[in-house]
Amino acid sequence: MLFHRLTSVNWNRMEHHTDRYHGNELIIRRGQTFQIELDLSRPFNSNTDKLHLDLKTGPLPMVSKNTHVIIQLVEELEDDRWEAKIVERNGNRIKLSVNSHAKAVIGQYKLTVTVESPKGESATTHDPRKDIVMLFNPWCEDDTVYMDDEEEKKEYVLNDTGRLYYGTEKQIGGRTWNYGQFLEGMLEACLYVLEKSEVPPPGRGDPVNVVRVISAMINSQDDNGVLAGNWSGNYVGGVSPTAWNGSVEILKKYQKEGGLPVKYGQCWVFSGVTTTVLRCLGIPCRSVTNFQSAHDTDVSLTTDMYFDENMEPFDELNTDSVWNFHVWNDCWMARPDLPPGNGGWQALDATPQETSQGTFRCGPASVTAIRTGQVYLKYDTPFIFAEVNSDKIYWQRNLDGIFTQIQCEKKAVGHCISTKAVGSDERDDITHLYKHTEGSEEERIAVETASRYGTKPDVYSTSRAEDVSLEVKLEGEGPRMGADAQLTIVMTNLSSQARKTTLHIQVAVMYYTGVLKGTVKKDKMPVALKPNEG
């Protein structure tokens, strides 16, 4: 006869930084020791009695798949392995210190204890109330999600509220978001999302796998994930995306209704829910907003605008767009699957825009690889590179049907990339993490390196005369609702010869996603410029 109990759940949870999760089950982080007390029917004899623990997760636990773990008693604990040691004896009670592996599968484990006596008698006990939840461990140096800065861990793992940014780069707005990862039912809801995903339990030990599948599961396309996206303006039958102020209601509703997608979300909602799930599972995560965010639809790594012979837009070809803002996520981890130097922040986007390997998901893409234009490194680095650093290229069709490049805007995309600052509600500009200084030699090398791996690899191979520059200036802070917008268009002849040009102007109303609603004004005028004249 024996039964076991978990020594001071509070002690274990304080040690494992899981004390803020609601409830009193044992929630531990991998790669770190925890303690169990066992009450036996007689004193335990280390010389003659044998004892081992079994931890099982998933529907088909297997030792070979690391979903069935057998933990033997040892004299001394060693790092990086599953094992247990008796650290205290008191009559019929023994206390075990149990060491877990830093690459253990995360999720719910069923714990059983078996004791064998010299006479061949064995007793096994399982108490479902003593099951264990295993999470990733940013405090463990051997875990690939390890983060060394204590203040950053407090922000990116333990903070349950945050700020999401929206609007335009001239008028950046911020809204408070309740992540609520420690509230009642939230751990179960986040594990439910993982259970509903395609990733089998053996794959849940690799954070690269886990965040990739979460980016697919937060949107409802393909897999009946958490949120249905809606950009139509008609939200009948659901909640307007702007009405949400946190993730809790969304995730609880998804679990309660058996995996029925919750209506409706847009980019900031997808991002906020992703932050909740990853922080809950123990992966450092933050929501990130990119202003003037490009949507490259053809993997050209450029944002392309097409015009006919008369400079009329080619609507059927103009599928690329630039959003006022777009919100995605950064998550923190080492990338042993990539060349050294690509660990740290990884970009992840749960908003369904383009498919990746047949599924609406995006990332994780190394932010370092994005910055340097190494878009051949997985996952989905070309798409995120284009969002933050693609050139906006204008093409005109010639009489022979061939398109010629007529203009290239090198600074039109990827401004004021923002996230909530560590330890305060201030906005932190992290543009420098995603791209070199705009116009610098390093930034140009990154753009041209990236383009060589796209569908238009020769776009920068021929040099072009760019001796007439064009700049549109906005007076003050730019256009506001209900007020006139004062625009100044400055053309400058950079050459020592006169230039005759035609200026085409189109002012249009568009959604924040870059989709045109209607044209306000359209005009064209000849402009003659003397040498070096502005």
Walkthrough of the structure:
It is an enzyme of class 2 (transferase). This protein is an alpha+beta fold and 534 residues long. The chain folds into three domains: 8-135, Immunoglobulin-like (Sandwich), CATH 2.60.40; 150-452, Coagulation Factor XIII, Chain A, domain 2; 468-529, no CATH class. 17% of the residues lie in helices and 34% in strands. It has ten helices and 29 strands. The strands form nine sheets. Strands 2, 4, 5, 8, 9 and 10 form a six-stranded mixed β-sheet that branches. Strands 21-18-17-15-24-25 form a six-stranded antiparallel β-sheet, with helices on both faces. It has a four-stranded antiparallel β-sheet with strand order 1-3-7-6, with no helix packed on it. The longest helix has 15 residues, at 267-281.
